[in-house]
Amino acid sequence: MAQLFATERFPRVVHLAAQAGVRYSLQDPHAYVRSNVTGTLNVLEGCRHHGAEHLVYASTSSVYGANTNMPF
User: Fold this and answer.
1) Which residues lie closer than 8 Å to 22 by C-beta, 6 or more apart?
2) Strands, E assignment, the chain
3) CA nearest 15: which of 23, 26, 28, 4?
């Protein structure tokens, strides 16, 4: 990510990358932290340090309804 931001100028960034699906996070929460938290932080830091003017962030690929089964 850092190399990409260092070699190209991005006035606008669209962040769509993430680990989708909540159930797998119960089995491997660290995969979600690496992808969703650390990955998003890398995008934010790249934007901050390299002057991106706008960031579009898609928060989820899933829509959650009235599921009565726990935990999700």
Assistant:
1) 62, 72
2) 12-15, 54-57
3) 4
> What's the CA gap between 29 and 27, in Å, rounded?
6
User: Rounded CA gap, 43 and 23, in Å?
Assistant: 25
- Mean pLDDT per 10-residue section of the chain, whose length is 72 residues: 91 89 86 91 95 89 65 60
Q: What predicted TM-score, i.e. pTM, was given to this entire model?
A: 0.75
Cα–Cα distance, 31 to 54 (Å, whole number): 27
- Every domain of the chain and the residues it spans: 2-57
For residues 28 and 21, what is the distance between their CA atoms, to the nearest angstrom?
Answer: 12
Q: Which of 62, 20, 21 is nearest to 39 (CA)?
A: 20
